[in-house]
Write a structure and sequence with these properties.
It is a single chain. By secondary structure, the protein is α+β, with helices and mostly antiparallel strands. It has helices at residues 3-6, 20-30, 49-54, 87-97, 116-127, 146-156, 185-194; strands at residues 13-14, 34-39, 42-48, 75-76, 101-106, 109-115, 134-140, 161-168, 174-180, 198-201. The protein folds into 2 domains: 3-123, CBS-domain; 129-201, ACT domain (Alpha-Beta Plaits, 2-Layer Sandwich). It is elongated, with a radius of gyration of 23 Å.
């Protein structure tokens, strides 16, 4: 999945000279948390709802200082993404920089914006949780052919796999989180255990009530 697959477009924007009150009103009307700042046809900054909150004085008679403008609080020269960047690269950049959005640029041309919410939607789609399915988690040895052996198990039983996500654990083994196209997960997990797989979820016995 690429950034172009999850980005939002068109993008709400304001000029640098817009007042903070105007920016706040636009965010409220569009139910968004980020606005791009355009100077002519150039993206020169990003302003967020957090920027507006920090600019607000609880002691002031009006929500924002009189005459305060977006250019006084915006983040200048924001980090951007390209449309063909992998989604996970965008997520890593946002996590490392502790930012909530990335303008999506094709050269100097703005195509869209990707936000934390877009990344969460992408995660839901990649895990297959938005379709009827059941979740299994299996711990595998980090050896060639182990994942193929696991997928062959489901193929032999005619159970489609909606998604497979893997990651290494602290023991340098591989955890595979699966979404199988069946809600009969406990019988499948019992069969997996009989075949020698280390099934972490669902547990072997139901949780006590």
């Amino acid at each position: 999945m690429l950034v172009r697959d999850i980005m939002s477009s068109p993008v709400a924007a304001v000029p640098p000279a817009a007042t903070l009150e105007d920016a706040y009103r636009m965010m409220r009307e569009k139910a968004i948390r980020h606005l791009l700042v355009f100077d002519g046809d150039r993206v020169v900054g990003v302003v967020t709802d957090r920027d507006l909150r920090l600019a607000t004085s609880s002691l002031a008679a009006s929500p924002f200082p009189p005459g305060s403008r977006v250019e006084s609080v915006m983040v200048r020269s924001p980090l951007t993404a390209a449309p063909d960047d992998p989604v996970e690269d965008a997520a890593r950049a946002m996590r490392e920089r502790k930012i909530g959005c990335l303008p999506v640029m094709d050269g100097d041309r703005l195509l869209g914006i990707v936000t934390v919410i877009d990344l969460m939607d992408a995660l839901l789609a990649m895990t297959g949780v938005d379709k009827p399915s059941g979740r299994l988690e299996i711990r595998l040895s980090d050896a060639p052919g182990e994942l193929a052996r696991l997928t062959a198990f489901f193929a032999s039983r005619g159970v489609p796999l909606r998604s497979i996500l893997t990651h290494a654990d602290e023991e340098d083994r591989v955890r595979a989180v699966l979404r199988a196209g069946s809600i009969e997960i406990r019988p499948l997990s019992a069969e997996l255990r009989r075949e020698g797989f280390d099934v972490l979820w669902p547990p072997d016995k139901p949780w006590p009530r």
